[in-house]
Write a structure and sequence with these properties.
179 residues, alpha+beta, Muramoyl-pentapeptide Carboxypeptidase, domain 1, two-stranded antiparallel sheet, two-stranded antiparallel ribbon, elongated
Length: 179
């Protein structure tokens, strides 16, 4: 028995396959955190200062299916004003992008600065605020990531990847001076 596929299915399948291939190519030198943040070599928003490191939260597009009634045959009206035949409609559905895909960029500490001492300081700063109950061991473990996620989500950044802004708010990264 052969399976018949609609052109719409073939288009969706082909698009999904192409997107997966593109994503695989893009992620060769990148890692994805538990919260879906993409990080990697050469990853930076346009115009980022050299020597800075960045995280990105890809936000998918919001797509809705719109269904409309399309008139196929109009109603026929008799000379006396009564309806001879009712109108005929067909239903048409299409997908519409409500909100386009976006990338939310945020600066992160660069790997050379992300030392055991730095993570230990982060853990102590989170511990003092009652957000981290684990051992201060200098490892960016699940408990530390959960605490970072908690503090950053409260500030509007749903990520377990430490941002420079959060590190500054916790007092573990210097705030740059303006001359």
């Amino acid at each position: 028995m052969t399976q018949a596929y609609s052109p719409r299915f073939a288009l969706r399948f082909g698009t999904a396959l192409a997107a997966a291939a593109l994503l695989a190519a893009c992620l060769q030198d990148q890692t994805v955190s538990d919260s879906g943040v993409v990080m990697g070599n050469g990853l930076a928003p346009p115009g980022a200062p050299p020597g800075t490191c960045w995280g990105k939260i890809p936000t998918p597009a919001v797509i809705e299916t719109v269904t409309e009634q399309v008139l196929v045959t109009p109603a026929k009206i008799n000379p006396d004003g009564t309806i001879a035949t009712l109108p005929v409609y067909r239903e048409e559905s299409r997908q519409q992008i409500v909100t386009p895909r976006t990338d939310r960029w945020f600066e992160i500490p660069c790997p050379p600065d992300f030392t055991v001492e730095f993570v230990s300081t982060l853990q102590r700063a989170l511990q003092v605020r009652g957000l981290y109950e684990g051992e201060v061991n200098g490892n960016m473990d699940q408990a530390t990531r959960r605490a970072v996620l908690q503090v950053q989500t409260a500030a509007g950044l749903p990520s377990d990847v430490l941002s420079i802004e959060t590190a500054r708010d916790l007092g573990i990264v210097a705030i740059p001076r303006t001359p």
